[in-house]
Specification:
- The chain is of the alpha+beta class and 104 residues long.
- It has one domain: Roll (Structural Genomics Hypothetical 15.5 Kd Protein In mrcA-pckA Intergenic Region, Chain A).
- Helix content is 24%, strand content 24%.
- It has three helices and five strands.
- The protein has a five-stranded antiparallel β-sheet with strand order 2-1-3-4-5.
- Helix 1 crosses helix 2.
- The longest helix has 9 residues.
- The termini are far apart.
Length: 104
């Protein structure tokens, strides 16, 4: 499964396009390398996501066959590390930050 689709299916991002954009901006790594949204994810892979308010590192446990509910998402990844950072308070600020040219 594509990385951007996996991140959407397991509810790390709300949409595939958000996940893809985060990959393009270098905010996502796959096995310690800068990730592209089109990369294929396998069980055992390590993914990091550098959100504005939090850093998250997790291991892929399983590839979902369809959409995943919030209560079932722990079956598909195990969180290895999280760190809180300065929090962006409004969702619109997050989207503005994600779509900005700051990381290009």
């Amino acid at each position: 499964m594509r990385l951007d689709l996996y991140l959407k299916k397991v509810l790390i991002f709300k949409s595939r396009s958000q996940a893809h954009e985060a990959c393009k901006k270098g905010l996502v790594t796959l096995n310690n390398a800068r990730a592209k949204g089109s990369m294929i994810v396998h069980p055992g892979d390590i993914i990091t996501v550098d959100f504005p308010g939090m850093f998250m590192k997790f291991e892929v446990l399983e590839i979902p066959k369809g959409n995943v509910s919030r209560k079932d998402r722990d079956k598909y990844y195990r969180v290895l590390e999280t760190r809180k950072k300065e929090i962006i308070k409004e969702r619109s600020q997050f989207m503005e930050w994600l779509m900005s040219d700051e990381f290009e």
